[in-house]
Amino acid sequence: MLQYTGYILTGVIGTVTITVSAFLIGAVLGVPLAVASRSTSRLLRWPAVSLIEVFRSVPNLVWLFLVFFGLPEVGIRLGPWTTAILTLGVTSSAYLGEIYRGGFSALGQGQWLASKALGLTTWDRGRYVLAPQLIRVVSPTMATYAISLLKESALASTIGVMELTFRGGLVTQRTGDGLSTFVVVGVVYLLLSLPLAYGSRRVDSRLRAKFSVG
Question: What is the DSSP letter of 75?
Fold first, then answer.
């Protein structure tokens, strides 16, 4: 088993690539979804809320299969890596958009009205007043979701992406030793998750100290 450990560990690059790329896509696309879902206009709010609910209600595995196996039937073909990153990125936007929406709701209207009373422009209110507080509110939840996304990245193995779980499966087929192989795989996922959890606590503590009053 030891001779295959290095081969398994090279899958970490794929796992991290999928996770980081999908998270960044979701973090960016989640912003307009969150803003639209809080809009007073039904033409903006209803489609945004509907998209969030649809993406969150269907398992990511189904979305992966739909994109990878379904889109070729209408002439759209994406490679395994592209499918994994784009699909998980788009579904992440729904989860992160909902996280942002909850963060805005937690801040309340008082923060916005108070910054407006100071004569700040809309951009300055968002940048200097609301954004720092929003980050403080949502950062722990975002970190928790990042850990969940890290584990969800294993689904990419089902469409042939050479990430951590896929390589573990190949080693199991070659050696017949599934127990030791996936113990190693599980430990690697744990080691990848722990820094995210620790970093989240550190960031949350620092932001709370920075924005605390008194």
Answer: T
CA distance 199 to 140: 9
Angle at which helices 164-175 and 178-211 pack, to 10 degrees?
160
Q: Which of 144, 50, 139 is nearest to 103 (CA)?
A: 139
Q: 22 near 153, Cβ under 8 Å?
A: yes
Residues 6 or more apart in contact with residue 180 via CB below 8 angstroms:
1
Cβ-proximal residues to 190 (8 Å cutoff; 6+ apart), any chain = none
Is 89:26 a contact under the CB 8 Å cutoff?
yes
Cβ pair 107, 126 in contact under 8 A: no
Contact present, 163 and 14 (Cβ < 8 Å): yes
Is there a contact between 71 and 6 (Cβ–Cβ < 8 Å)? no
Phi, psi at 10, each rounded to 5°: -65, -20
Both tokens assigned to 55: 């993406």
pLDDT, tens digit (0-9, with 9 covering 90-100), for 129-173: 777 777 778 888 898 999 999 999 999 999 999 999 999 999 999
Q: In angstroms, rounded to a whole number, what is the distance separating the alpha carbons of residues 126 and 138?
A: 15
Q: Are 101 and 124 in contact (CB under 8 A)?
A: no
Write the DSSP assignment of 164-210 as a string of letters: HHHHHHHHHHHHS-HHHHHHHHHHHHHHHHHHHHHHHHHHHHHHHHH
Tokens (6 digits) for 134: 């929003």
The answer to whether 176 touches 50, Cβ cutoff 8 Å, is no
Report pTM: 0.87
